[in-house]
Structure formats: structure tokens, C-alpha cells
């Protein structure tokens, strides 16, 4: 058991952080929401009701969609674009999806390669793009969930102020929706861009996201360019 935990420690570490952060967000959001209800002369709600509310859903979905968009674009961009010297990039000259031999696909697969990579054809094509497909699907679904929950929240706020309800279409073209969306996108793009650039000149000994400490700045990895 100890060996299995060690083999999956990185995933388990971030899963634990995710659960703790989500729980913290739920509690903090619950108190904030009840404070707002009291300010408007409305009765407070229980924690369970808050967790099923659009207020909680829109905040969660808003963050999820931006995170998965970040990784979707980063995965896609690193197929064709390179950054000389960054460990987050392939070396210049390695742009593109690579050959079947490089990717161990079809006749070039090993006996222990995933079954769909050995099958070739459409199954190898789907499996070869499965990471991008899943990341993109989660982004789209999260963004759609954000828009639905956001519409409900907006209409609840409109009702408190005696304003008319709006449709989903009106909400997704509103400044509120795009303010929520773009304030997350810009921070994700900044974080990825700085990671790519900082890792050219800065090091973290022992991290898989860093080059070895003594690697020259111009090299993307241990291998010479």
C-alpha cells in the first residue's frame, strides 16, 4: 500500500489540496452569501442549500473552465510552437505531431503500448488526441455550466432590485458574464506564459518542471540542441 501511494503521490497531493480548497470555498462562500441575504432583508439558508445553489455553482464552474482552457491551449500550442531554452517546450525543429515511429503508433508500437495505439487507424487517431479532446470537453461543459448558473444568479439579483429577468442569451452577451470570464482567462494566460519564460533562466533543483541546474539557458532539455 505504501508503495502504491508513493507511486501516485503527486496526483494524491493535488487531489487533497483540491478537496481542502473546495471545502474552504464552500464554507467561506456560504457565510458571504448569508451576509448578502441579510443585507437585503432575506432569510439565510443552510449549508446544504448553498452547495446546491447557483451562487456556488457559478463560482466553481467559472474557475474550472478557465483552468481547463489554460491546459487545452497549452497542450495544443506546444504541438506547433516552441520556446528555445524552456523545459515546457520541445526543441526548435521538433514542431508538429511527430511520425508514427516517434509516437510508437501502429506497426511501431511496443508490446506494452496502449491497445488503441497498437490498433492504428481511427482508434490510434482518437487515442493520440484524447488528452486534448477531454480537456476541451471539460472546458466547454464548465463554461456552459457557468453560463447557466450565472443566468440564475443574475435573475436572483435582478429580482432583489425589482428588475426584470433576462434570458440565457442576454446573459452570455452581458458585461457580467464576460467580466467573470476574462478576468480568469487573463490570469491563466499570464501564469502559463511566465512559467514558460521563467523556466529558461531559473531553476528548481529536483523538479520535473525545471531543467537540471547546470543546463545552459539556451538548451530546452538535457540533450544538446
**Strand residue content:** under 5%
Share in helix: 55-70%
Biggest sheet record: none
Q: Helix/strand-derived class?
A: mainly alpha
Shape: elongated
**Structural domain tally:** 2
Task: Report the count of strand segments.
Answer: 0
- The number of distinct helices, counting runs of at least 4 residues, comes to 10
Low-confidence stretches: none
Q: What distance separates the N and C termini?
A: 42 Å
- Spell the H/E element sequence: HHHHHHHHHH
- What's the gyration radius in Å? 23 Å
Name the average pLDDT: 92
Topology of this protein?
Elements: H1 2-7, H2 9-39, H3 47-51, H4 54-80, H5 100-103, H6 115-119, H7 121-128, H8 130-160, H9 168-172, H10 175-201
Helix pairs in contact: 4-8, 4-10
Pick out its properties.
single chain; 225 residues; mainly alpha; elongated
Walk me through the structure.
There is one protein chain. The protein is an all-alpha fold and 225 residues long. It has two domains: 52 residues; 172 residues, no CATH class. The protein is 66% helix and 0% strand. The protein has ten helices and no strands. Helix 4 runs antiparallel to helix 8 and helix 4 crosses helix 10. The longest helix is centred in the N-terminal third of the chain and has 31 residues.
Short description:
The protein has helices at 2-7, 9-39, 47-51, 54-80, 100-103, 115-119, 121-128, 130-160, 168-172, 175-201.
Amino acid at each position: 500500500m505504501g508503495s502504491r501511494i508513493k507511486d501516485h503521490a503527486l496526483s494524491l497531493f493535488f487531489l487533497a489540496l483540491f478537496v481542502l480548497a473546495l471545502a474552504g470555498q464552500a464554507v467561506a462562500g456560504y457565510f458571504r452569501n448569508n451576509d448578502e441575504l441579510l443585507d437585503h432583508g432575506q432569510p439565510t439558508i443552510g449549508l446544504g442549500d448553498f452547495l446546491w445553489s447557483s451562487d456556488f455553482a457559478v463560482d466553481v464552474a467559472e474557475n474550472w473552465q478557465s483552468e481547463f482552457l489554460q491546459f487545452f491551449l497549452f497542450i495544443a500550442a506546444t504541438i506547433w510552437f516552441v520556446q528555445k531554452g524552456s523545459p515546457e517546450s520541445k526543441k526548435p525543429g521538433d514542431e508538429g505531431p511527430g511520425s508514427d515511429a516517434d509516437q510508437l503508433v501502429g506497426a511501431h508500437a511496443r508490446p506494452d503500448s496502449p491497445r488503441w495505439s497498437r490498433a492504428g487507424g481511427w482508434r490510434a487517431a482518437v487515442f493520440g488526441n484524447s488528452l486534448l479532446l477531454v480537456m476541451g470537453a471539460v472546458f466547454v461543459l464548465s463554461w456552459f455550466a457557468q453560463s447557466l448558473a450565472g443566468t440564475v444568479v443574475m435573475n436572483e439579483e435582478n429580482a432583489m432590485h425589482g428588475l426584470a429577468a433576462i434570458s440565457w442569451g442576454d446573459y452570455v452577451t452581458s458585461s457580467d458574464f464576460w467580466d467573470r470570464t476574462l478576468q480568469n482567462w487573463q490570469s491563466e494566460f499570464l501564469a502559463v506564459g511566465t512559467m514558460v519564460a521563467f523556466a529558461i533562466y531559473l531553476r528548481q533543483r529536483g523538479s520535473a518542471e525545471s531543467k537540471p541546474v547546470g543546463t545552459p539557458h539556451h538548451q530546452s532539455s538535457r540533450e544538446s540542441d
